[in-house]
Predict the 3D structure of the following.
Amino acid sequence: MTSATPMAGASYGIMIEFTDDNVCLPSTIQILHDDGVSLEINSTVQPGFNPGIVAPVLQSESWTGPACGNDVNLLYANSAGSSGQGAWLEYLPKLY
């Protein structure tokens, strides 16, 4: 991911990036998040996942690409709000 992502800027505090290669994906990908995510599969940003600050939300998108052998890059941005807000992030399929 590059600094050109919609999650770049002063609205965010900590950015966390998860990467894995040779991943097998289901036909539906789900991400529960609160402060914005961007999902790249095989170097292509997947539409349908909000990169903006939101209340906790579960978003789902269909995957029609190859089942296995995929490179996955998941970027999560935690907003730079008041301390103690916490973070929400769950990605299905899990990268472990």
